Amino acid sequence: MATYNDDATIAESIGSILQQDFDDWELIVVNDASTDATENVLEQFSDEERIRVISLDKNSGSGVARNIAIREAAGEYLAILDADDIALPQRLRLQSAALDADPALAAVAAQVAEFGTWGGPVPGRWPTSDQEVASRQLSRKMPIPHPSAMFRTSEVRRVGGYDERCRRAQDFALLLKLSDRRVRCLDEVLVHYRTQRPVTLSYVIRNGRYAQLARDRFEMSQRGLSEDALPLEPTKSIRTDLASVKSWVVRNLQEQIGSRK
């Protein structure tokens, strides 16, 4: 769990791990030099032996924070949980069982339900058939929801963890690097994912550009370019921006329809 200025939500997120019906876990929280009361909130859990807190002196970004946790992790599996999200009690048990049952899987995610000050939780719908997920990998789309992902530790370390040079879309960049491995999404909702609504068009366009940057960096690295030769900033693309506008319109229509039910 990487955290930066999450004092309003992190206690609830940590509490959701303490309430798991699966006991064999360790929670590594990397405090990315928070300037609010996050450190004080974390001190409330100092008596819990299964929770480790690593505090950084300098704000370094979520990619750096997560990679530190990956290096420190002792477990066979790595479950992602953002410091404002909620893991349902059966999450760790069901996902670890899925990875145990199929050693060829590099990651298992689950459905997420969005919630926030606007309401919720409202379940989303991600593909669950292995064929559909593999098709998304081949077409360089996000194959599974990262907020609910549980990875095989060895696979994440094999590809070098998160791309610290991607300021956004680090989750997508990681899953691109794992596109040569099978991943899966379970049918159950196992994470409540905190969001803001409505989502602004500028936010969606910016995220779309960074997702394309992640694709570009991955494709160039596959062609043998060195890390220093890879682009660091996204470029404007009419095609990318139009796709973002389309997804924003569809999302807003779905939210409006859902709010009327």
TrEMBL record:
Keywords, comma-separated and alphabetical: Glycosyltransferase, Transferase
Domain (Glycosyltransferase 2-like): residue spans on this chain: 1-151
Domain of life: Bacteria
Gene Ontology MF terms in the entry: glycosyltransferase activity
PANTHER family: GLYCOSYLTRANSFERASE, GLYCOSYLTRANSFERASE EPSE-RELATED
Family: Belongs to the glycosyltransferase 2 family.
Name this protein carries in UniProt: Glycosyltransferase family 2 protein
Organism, as annotated: Rhodococcus rhodochrous
Organism lineage string: Bacteria, Bacillati, Actinomycetota, Actinomycetes, Mycobacteriales
